[in-house]
Amino acid sequence: MSELTQPSPIFEKNRRAFLMRKLHSLSGVVPVGGFMVFHLWTNAKATQGQESFDSAVRDISHLPFVTVIEFALILLPLLFHTTYGIWIALNGKPNDGEYTYTRNWMYTLQRVSGLVAAVFIVLHLKDYWWPKMVGKMEPSAFYNTLCTDLSNTNHGVPVLALWYVIGIAACVFHFANGLWGFCFSWGITVSRRSQRMAATVFGLVGVALFFIGANTVIYFATGEDVPNALRRVAGFSVPEKVICKDPSKISER
User: Fold this and answer.
1) Domain ranges for the chain
2) Which of 201, 206, 205, 202 has the alpha carbon at shortest distance from 172?
3) pLDDT digit string (tens) for 67-110?
4) What number of CA atoms fall less than 13 Å from residue 61's CA on the CB side?
5) Which residues, given as ranges, of the chain have pLDDT below 50?
6) Long-range Cβ pairs for the range 169-172 (8 Å, 24+)
7) 10-249 has which CATH code?
8) Helix, strand, or coil here: 154?
């Protein structure tokens, strides 16, 4: 066999695991991680009022080929990242000899957070994306549906809102720690100093993203976001708390 007809070494059987892990790492950053950041940022517009939130949702729903974009650039990469990630979590072993004690904790937490995030995302899609796809929920009803669902309590405890905070924490930690792993495995952060700097930067990114997501949940659950709640406690004038409307009475604009 000539050199021109020989298969590429990267597709040989003993290289497939390496290629799959690289694709898994890349998909967690782009497009899955990028979409998560965009999703959290878009939902955070709810804290500016329903009109701002509805406008953002309308802009997205009116994008050309939005369904194709959702499937090809979001759902399929998410499915690959989730299923292969679960396989890694169930078959992987901590690298006690290769990484420090802290990084071994991060290795374990990455797997645990990934499993929690997978459950959270599936339930989130079932509750909101799927009803929209089959025509049972209009995008204009998202705001009031989220407000009603997240403000519901069981014996005074906002169970779903708490679950959302946990789910967001799992997604954000998995993303931020995954960024560190991506930079390490792709040879971007080679030295110990660059790895420590990356851990600090991505840690701060994770904290910021968690605040954005948790603040939105708190807004829907209580009718008031964290900054306004703090202003109220300090005695400053703040807007009235949001009162949820019946989502079944919301019509498409």
Assistant:
1) 10-249
2) 206
3) 999 999 999 999 999 999 999 988 876 554 555 678 888 999 99
4) 17
5) 1-2, 96, 250-253
6) 169/113, 169/210, 169/214, 170/113, 170/114, 170/116, 170/117, 170/120, 171/36, 171/113, 171/117, 171/120, 171/121, 171/213, 172/36, 172/206, 172/209, 172/210, 172/213
7) 1.20.1300.10
8) strand
